[in-house]
Every structure is written in structure tokens, then in C-alpha cells.
Write a structure and sequence with these properties.
alpha+beta, 12 helices
Length: about 400
């Protein structure tokens, strides 16, 4: 295993950092403040996009910093999972920045699904405009009325009726549902109850303007609607789409999900590491600039040791994530499940601890929108549930570990 980034990754990282320093960081606070003014509260039907973000998307594409996540030389930049990892970390320092480079969740995961498993017709209709940044997509998996920590509990249904698939059920925490350009959801539902429990579900592409879809509301995460993106609740009542919208075939939902979640978790975790680095930076700057009881805050109450603990925790989390990315590239997702599950536990916990420490350094300022720390804290806590809670991933690590000893 080599921990040095390839020359190709270093070149893209250098270009990305320059773009961020020249275009994003100088207006980061302005964009957040104006997005709050432009998109008040739960009035999600009137949410609008920030013109500076739209302008920077055009500029990023012109500079070749577009679709960096996709390991395809023509449609993306041909970067491996390991090569893309440091780029995701840099983007993570500003949570809205992945959209500027068309590297935002859940679109990256949905595009990977279509790229690897979609039919040519599905790619032409949905993948092409997603890669162009013309539309946005959502992913409908979690449900409000079942324990979604066990994905086999999904009760929403997909049934064939002649040449159509009929969809019924409820989904929530569908990220990006409030975005004005959201046009389609990848919907996962129970389709083959007679099969083995991991072959009972399917994924189907459902246009969001289909008859029978009702977007009930956007949900808040720690009081924040995350406008203009949002996490929403959808109800499906006898929604009909052509059966050709089913991805790869009936009963293939979990097989597709395994391919989707591996790289996606690398992306999530590296962005979280970027947030942690930003939080540590802010803590140090605040600790050096503010005084209390006659001393800089950084020299009070064990704060220097807390800085050291944060530095070590971030570096440990990064190395584990890079190891997982390397293993995905080298031997595939199925053979990297311990590492993929491990980072999903380790990284959000690390982020939560580092951000909490940084908030303490900032006092009341750390809890309001003057700094990004409250937003980071909500992201950290959300990530401990998104794509499965800690306990599910710990269970996966345990099962794999115990298998090593079955014949001993």
C-alpha cells in the first residue's frame, strides 16, 4: 500500500485548492448569509439557487474541475477512489462546494449507479443531464414507519403491471429533494418478497413530477433546513412508470446498493475529514486570538492537549479512510467491507469530537451562523445515522472478524 498521492491526484488537488482559495473561500460567509435570506424556513417550494454558486459551476467546468468523482476518462477525469479522496477532503471544508464541481451527494452515488448498472436508455435520459449538471436527483431508501437501520425492513413496494411498474409507499430523509433542479429519484422498494431477503428489493427511476407523488415536507436537521437542498419526505400512491425504468432487473436492489455505498462512503468520510481540518484551524486561530483570565484561551484548561488529540484523531481517521479507498481500488468493494464499515463509524465520531472542541473554543459564537461550526456539528451527528447507524457498521465488522476464527 502506497500512501503518497499519485502525480495525477496531486495535480488536480493543486488546481482545486487554487480554485477554492481564489473563488470560494473569499465569499463563503457571504454565500451562506445570503442563502439564508433567499430561502427562509420551510418555504421550500420557493427555494432558489445562489447566483454565485451557479457562476462558479460554469467556471469550474471551464477549468476542467468537473465530475472529478467518476473513474472514467471521458465522462469524468479517470481518478481512482484513492486519487479522488484528497479532492473530496478539500471540498468538505465548505459544505456547499461539492455542487460547484458536480461532485455533490446524492447525485454522485446515483450517477455511479447509472454508470455501472443503468441501461443505455436510462443513461441517455438521466445520466447525461446529471453529468452536465442540468438536473439534480435524490435517493429514496429510508422510510418513516419502519426501522430503516435494517434495510430489509423496507415496506414501500414496486410491482409489475403489464408494461409498467407501480410504486407505493413513503420515503423520507431524501437529500436534495428541495433543490429547484431535482427531477428524479432512485426509489428502492420491496418487489420480490418470495426471494431470499437480500434479493427481495429493486431500484427504479421515478420522475418527481409523476402523478401520485406528493412531497409532504422538508425536514430540519438540528433546526436547519439546509436550503436550497433539503432533506424531504415523499409519499407515493399508485405511481406508474415504464418497467424499463427498473435498474438492472427485479430483485437487484441490494446488489446495486453495495456497489453504490462503497465509494460513496469514501466521499462522505473524506469530506468529513475536511470539515474536521477546518474546525481545528478555526479552534487554533480563536484560541490564539482571544484571551481570558490573563492568558490566550489556547493555554487554558488543557486546551493545548485537546489540539494535540484532535490532530492525532484526524490523521488516524484519514489514514484509515485512505486505506479503505486503496482496498476498494485494489480488490473491490466486497473485499473491503471491514474498512468501509470501520470508517463510517470512526470518521463521524472523530468529526463530532473535533467540532465540539472547536465550539468550546468559540463560546457562544460557535453555536450561531457566524462560523460554520454549528453546521459541521449537525453534519457530524447526521453522518452517524446516514447510510446506516454506527451499530450496524460495528455489527458488520464483528461478523467479518468472527468468520476468521470459525475453523480455528
Amino acid at each position: 500500500m502506497h500512501f503518497e498521492h499519485s502525480q495525477k491526484a496531486q495535480d488536480y488537488l493543486s488546481r482545486l485548492k487554487t480554485f477554492m482559495q481564489e473563488n470560494v473561500y473569499p465569499i463563503e460567509s457571504k454565500i451562506y448569509a445570503e442563502m439564508e435570506e433567499m430561502n427562509p424556513g420551510g418555504d421550500w417550494k420557493n427555494w432558489t439557487l445562489h447566483p454565485d454558486v451557479e457562476r462558479l459551476k460554469v467556471k469550474a467546468r471551464e477549468q476542467g474541475l468537473w465530475n472529478l468523482f467518476l473513474p472514467d476518462d471521458e465522462l469524468g477525469k479517470g481518478l481512482s477512489c484513492l486519487e479522488y479522496a484528497p479532492l473530496a477532503e478539500e471540498m468538505g471544508r465548505v459544505p456547499f462546494s461539492p455542487e460547484i464541481f458536480n461532485c455533490n451527494a446524492p447525485d454522485t452515488g446515483n450517477m455511479e449507479v447509472l454508470y455501472h448498472f443503468g441501461s443505455e436508455a436510462q443513461k441517455q435520459q438521466w445520466l447525461t443531464p446529471l453529468l452536465a449538471g442540468e438536473i439534480r436527483s435524490v435517493f429514496g431508501m429510508t422510510e418513516p414507519e419502519v426501522a430503516s437501520s435494517d434495510a430489509t425492513n423496507m415496506a414501500a413496494t414496486i410491482e409489475l403491471d403489464g408494461d409498467e411498474a407501480v410504486i407505493n409507499g413513503k420515503k423520507w430523509w431524501s437529500t436534495g429533494l428541495g433543490h429547484p433542479n431535482a427531477k428524479v429519484t432512485v426509489f428502492m422498494g420491496l418487489s420480490n418478497p418470495e426471494n431470499d431477503r437480500h434479493a427481495q428489493h429493486s431500484m427504479v427511476l421515478v420522475p418527481l413530477d409523476s402523478e401520485g407523488i406528493e412531497i409532504k415536507r422538508m425536514l430540519t436537521a438540528y433546526g436547519d433546513y439546509d436550503a436550497p437542498y433539503g432533506h424531504g419526505e415523499m409519499h407515493f400512491t399508485n405511481v406508474r412508470v415504464p418497467k424499463e425504468n427498473i435498474i438492472m432487473g427485479m430483485g437487484k436492489g441490494f446488489a446495486i446498493a453495495q456497489g453504490r455505498l462503497g465509494p460513496g462512503r469514501i466521499h462522505h468520510c473524506m469530506r468529513a475529514i475536511g470539515m474536521a481540518e477546518k474546525a481545528l484551524e478555526l479552534a487554533i486561530l480563536r484560541g490564539q486570538a482571544r484571551e481570558a483570565f490573563g492568558k490566550p484561551i489556547i493555554k487554558l484548561g488543557g486546551n493545548q492537549e485537546r489540539i494535540a488529540e484532535a490532530r492525532m484523531a484526524i490523521d488516524q481517521a484519514r489514514l484509515l479512510t485512505l486505506s479503505a479507498a486503496w482496498k476498494i481500488d485494489a480488490v473491490g468493494v466486497k473485499n473491503a467491507m471491514t474498512e468501509i464499515s470501520a470508517i463510517k463509524v470512526v470518521v463521524p465520531r472523530m468529526l463530532q469530537n473535533v467540532v465540539d472542541m472547536a465550539i468550546q473554543f468559540h463560546g457562544g459564537a460557535g453555536m450561531c451562523s457566524d462560523f460554520p461550526l454549528a453546521r459541521f456539528a449537525a453534519s457530524a451527528r447526521s453522518l452517524r445515522l446516514a447510510d446506516g447507524p454506527d451499530e450496524v457498521h460495528q455489527g458488520m465488522v464483528t461478523r467479518i472478524e468472527l468468520k476468521k476464527y470459525l475453523n480455528k
